Amino acid sequence: GAVYGITVPPNSKDFQYNAICSGDCTNQLIKEPTKIFGAYLHGHLATRKVIARHFRNGKELGVIDEDEHYDFNYQQYKHFETPIELLPGDSIMVTCHYNTEGRN
Questions:
Q1: Does position 48 have pLDDT exceeding 90, yes or no?
Q2: Helix, strand or coil, per DSSP, at residue 101
Q3: pTM given for the model
Q4: Sign of CA dihedral 57, 98, 35, 31
Q5: DSSP assignment of 8-34
Q6: What is the DSSP string of 36-65?
Q7: For 98, which of 10, 15, 45, 94 could close a Cys bridge (C-beta 3.0–4.6 Å)?
Q8: How far apart are CA 85 and CA 8, in angstroms?
């Protein structure tokens, strides 16, 4: 689902925000194993880094996708050669890093 109401403080060099699709969320959204075959990370102008991670039973299985040098003007879809299996009950956490230095 969408994330609303994020307040990024001004003049922050590396403000981090985590958005989580919990196991309860995936239990409602999917009823059988689902393949993640690609990703399109999205952020806004203050975004500097984005990472999406996959969890099962509280343990991290790996990174789904990440962009260490995110640029709003160069967003791209990435196709995975090997799809990632998402099960009902798995969680996904997306961490965004923002830089608002010089902004009030």
A1: yes
A2: coil
A3: 0.90
A4: positive
A5: PPTT-SSEEEEEEE-HHHHHHH-SS-E
A6: EEEEE----TTEEEEEEEEEETTEEEEEEE
A7: 15
A8: 33
